[in-house]
Design brief:
single chain, TIM Barrel, globular, 306 residues, hydrolase, Phosphotriesterase, metal-binding, Metal_Hydrolase, three-stranded antiparallel β-sheet
């Protein structure tokens, strides 16, 4: 019998984990939401240029967390990836209810897990591009009915495929509730859960409580200047590494508006490597920083696909 090998599912096909390279573990090339009207990421040429700038800064892979119904433009992703020479992993999943029209959500009732599984295994729409993770979202210090619905569907999709489940923590909160639901009641293994935006709620006790479960800890959004907690991110990462959790850390840029792109004068994707990486290396050392950018995402997003 042939052994099943873990692979990372990119928009150009499955690759071995060690082929991923230096990775922005949470970002966006395309994104559209009524909550960000007028700030859409929907320009293909700009996406290609931004990915090229990330490549020029030393980047080799980007994980796009844009989920279902938020302008992923899956059909454009292979060309953008190929032109820039950067691996791209895209997501299925569902964000908070406020990002969708009610009729969109109504059409998904009773079939959400089925949609997630189809996008992971068959492809997104007619694009032929398969998603490599499921992205869902919690609420501010709590989980509402919508979050529980989407996370239940995400867990079903994980059990059917093995895909990791990445969670937007609203302002970095509700991690215990997310873990209780996903890893407790829904039995998703903690090493298949990625908690996003922990930098927005720099509580070292909460961070270590989450880390002890074995989940992934993503500090994703250092390029967003409106987050007053960003200056504490290196301190929080160092504390987790010192406590023995360096093997569970991920870093990302989370560029969500056109104005935040480097090609439009913002920090964008390159900021992660141009500014954040050397700052972390000064505190963590080059070896651990490189591990967080290379080895950790290779393990976090590698799946023995069912």
């Amino acid at each position: 019998m042939t052994a099943v090998r873990a692979t990372v599912r990119t928009v150009l096909g499955d690759i071995p984990p060690d082929g991923l390279g230096v990775t922005d573990a949470h970002d966006h090339l395309f994104l559209r939401s009524p909550l960000l009207a007028g700030q859409e990421l929907d320009d293909v040429a700009a996406a290609r240029a931004e990915l090229g700038a990330f490549r020029a800064a030393g980047g080799e892979a980007v994980v796009q967390w844009t989920p279902y119904g938020m302008g992923r433009r899956a059909a454009e992703l292979p060309g953008v990836s190929r032109a820039a020479g950067v691996h791209v992993v895209c997501a299925t999943g569902l964000h908070q209810a406020g990002h969708y029209a009610e009729e969109t959500l109504a059409a998904l009732r009773g079939r959400l897990a089925e949609v997630f599984v189809a996008e992971l295994t068959k492809g997104i729409g007619t694009s032929g591009v398969r998603a490599g993770l499921v992205k869902v979202a919690g609420g501010f210090h709590a989980l509402d009915a919508h979050a529980r619905w989407t996370m239940t569907a995400a867990a079903e999709a994980h059990h059917a495929t093995g895909a990791p489940v990445a969670v937007h923590l609203e302002q970095g909160t509700a991690a215990p509730d997310v873990l209780d639901l996903l890893c407790g009641a829904l039995e998703v293994p903690p090493h298949r859960v990625i908690l996003g935006h922990l930098n927005r709620f720099p509580d070292p006790v909460l961070h270590q409580q989450a880390a002890r479960t074995g989940c992934w800890l993503a500090f994703d959004g250092p390029s967003r200047a409106q987050h007053a907690t960003d200056w504490r991110m290196p301190e929080a990462v160092r504390a987790l590494a010192d406590a023995g959790f360096g093997g569970q850390l991920l870093l990302g840029g989370d560029t969500v508006t056109a104005g935040a792109r480097s090609v439009n004068g913002g920090p964008g994707m390159p900021y992660l490597l141009r500014r954040v990486r050397p700052r972390l290396a000064a505190g963590l050392g080059e070896e651990l920083t490189d591990r967080v950018l290379r080895e950790n995402p290779a393990r976090a997003f590698a799946v023995e696909w069912a």
